Amino acid sequence: MNELVRDLSIPNDWDRRGLPGWTYHSDALFELEKQHIFREHWQIACHISDLPNPGNYLTLDLVGERALILRGQDGEIRAFHNICKHRGSRLVADDKGACRNALVCPFHGWVYNLDGTLRGPSRPNTFPPMDKVEFGLTRLETEIWMGFVFIRFEKGPQGSVAELLKPFSDELGHYQPESVVPANDAIWSQISEVNWKSVRDVDNEGYHVAMAHPALQDLYGSTYYDEPFVNGICRSFATFNPHAGRRWSVRNYVKITEEPQRLPEPLKKAWIYYGMFPNAVIAVTPETVQFYQEFPLSKGRTLLRGAVYRYPEETRRQRIARYLAMRIDRDTQAEDVQLTIWSNEAMASKNFSSFYLSDLEYGVRTHHDHLRAVLPVMTLDKAPHESEITEVNRAMRKANGLAG
Ligand code: FES
User: Fold this and answer.
1) Taking every annotated instance into account, which residue ranges of this chain make up the domain Rieske (predicted)?
2) What pTM did the predictor assign?
């Protein structure tokens, strides 16, 4: 057995069906997902190196909420709702930027300090005395783990990020992810016209790699392996196929990539993906650390978002390897986008009830099981009436001992 494989066996009698098709195109279910899947679970906002200096900020919109991640003058990274306490204007309109020592609301000019406290309203004599904290920005729960900045809009079933991802900390720690810096100017994003679960379904299994991803298949050969979702996390990995090289980018990548000193032997030629429920992956290669995720914009529209980070002391060879790896990833992502569209279309067809999954797609099933645990209404093959989905789910959650 490959030394990178963890012993997570698959039961013999697992249910091979995926979620029923209706769960991919229900407005009522989407509202429940916004609350229980997205607001109540940790989300990766960025990496600490995206905000290198005091006053650097970044914004992120997610299921109707707006987050502002800001490095204060004391060097601390904090997250706030990007909502002015006066009349709710977006305090910061840009995706990313830098301010000197205060943020000024573009609506009426209230001024906030970089620790989120209110410095003062404009025309202060038109207000009674105001408490700087009470009228300061509302904090969002924030946790920094291995250099990644996580935010959560509301408390939910997950504990801390460090607890959740602890099984990965030793292995991922070899990559020294706190030390990386952005490889590109900005966090990338693109919109795909599918339900977010269709994106995750494709990403959660490698059964399709041999057929659909010629470049990845050339790189990995038969070494690719997916571990299932267990306690909110999963892991996939591959090592370089010794016969890799049918494709130009793969041939040259394998030839030029270096074996970094920081990595122990089995990781020197590996690509590893660490999945985190509900929607995020941290991925590593010998020359990069990256994250990617998907956020639903509506039941049929999804924002794909991510960023690649490099080592500050990157050599010329590592830079070229990173470029070639990016080409392989770019092809893979374009291929995946098409697959997600076809899969998502089928979910609306009367002639397709659900998936029938291979053992190699157990990760899809276990992700769905996590969704079913949070939203038990998804266990119903036949959709309740749209007007009843919320109530049916509330009753089922209650029966399972969860708050409505
Ligand atoms: Fe921000 Fe009025 S909404 S100052």
Assistant:
1) 43-151
2) 0.95
